[in-house]
């Protein structure tokens, strides 16, 4: 009996070690972490090349630009920022631009800068109604066609209001249901979706392959504000397991609310993700 118990202990331990070994082997590391430059709006406005240099030193590989008072590239011309990115070993994968009379110029600049994606961070039709979201979807389909002609992929970035309802219909769902999946991609801001009460994993399941871009941020426990990674309530491990369903290509760190210099915040968030396993 004693020998049998010893055998079972050894066998059980061996099995446990085997399972642990398998689990450890399967654990994945976050790769090619990107950053949205709105998080660094002040330093980018003052010294865009110096700020991008610091981001490259931290380890960021992928960049998403954001509109500024100096244009979509912080005073740099499209060819200039393309060259800066190449020199630093960075990829300008995406950029946000305001929908206005200069939209075609934004498309042309994105193509010249070598961007893959050009995103609208707001809806063209104002008002939280189903009809307005259908109108926005119609405009987005046309914008998607215009971008495609220039070799750029069009997309939309959500806030919180898109998850409001009218007559029981979630407005974001209306937008997804009425846009052409081949022309209009979605950049899901996981943090703001969760603040609005939506579950990102629900959308990854319901609209598989529609979310090639993510904004990742942590949210304070007691306030609807972004905070350094690991200090809030977002379960990053759970979110990262949905990459395949969403067809995620790029994820961008974003933190709007800062408690320390922006570059230090981005360093902290990068290092948090670098240690993360999922």
TrEMBL record:
SUPFAM superfamilies named in the record: Xylose isomerase-like
rRNA processing recorded as keyword: no
Chain ranges of the Xylose isomerase-like TIM barrel domain: 54-266
Tree of life domain: Bacteria
One Pfam family linked to the record: AP_endonuc_2
Listed GO MF terms: isomerase activity
InterPro entries, sorted: IolE/XylAMocC-like, TAT_signal, Xyl_isomerase-like_sf, Xyl_isomerase-like_TIM-brl
PROSITE patterns the UniProt entry points to: TAT
UniProtKB keywords: Isomerase
Keyword Isomerase: yes
Record's protein name: Sugar phosphate isomerase/epimerase
Originating organism: Arcicella aurantiaca
Lineage of producing organism: Bacteria, Pseudomonadati, Bacteroidota, Cytophagia, Cytophagales
